[in-house]
Design a protein that fits this description.
Layout lengths: L7 H5 L7 E3 L5 E4 L4 H9 L6 E5 L4 E4 L5 E2 L6 E5 L4 E5 L3 E6 L1
Antiparallel strand pairs: 1-2, 2-8, 3-4, 3-8, 5-6, 6-7
């Protein structure tokens, strides 16, 4: 064993990201880092269902309709369109999604 308590075999194993999916009756909460495909599935589902995202910095953005968001085809980022502003959101900074 090395000084850090890990054997050579443990250090050579690939590190795996753990995703957490916590479901409540309603609304649904997803606690994990979001990736392009996850976001794409969320925004393209039919019918559209409103959701709110929370970012690593604590900011929250609610999407009540498809008009509130925009994204490139790979969804590596999304845009939240407010009444008079737009915010670019990197999907890596999303820590929670709450479906309404």
């Amino acid at each position: 064993m090395a000084a850090d308590g890990l054997s050579q075999i443990q250090r050579s194993l690939p590190v795996r990201r753990q995703d957490f999916h916590v479901e409540a009756a309603s609304p649904r909460h997803y606690h994990r880092s979001m990736h392009g495909e996850d976001i794409k599935d969320l925004i393209q589902r039919s019918p559209f269902r409103p959701f709110t995202i929370r970012l690593t910095n604590g900011a929250e953005y609610s999407f009540s309709s498809r008009d509130d968001l925009g994204a490139p085809k790979d969804c590596h980022m999304i845009f939240h369109f407010g009444e008079s502003n737009a915010v670019r959101i990197d999907t890596d900074s999303i820590v929670e999604v709450v479906e309404k």
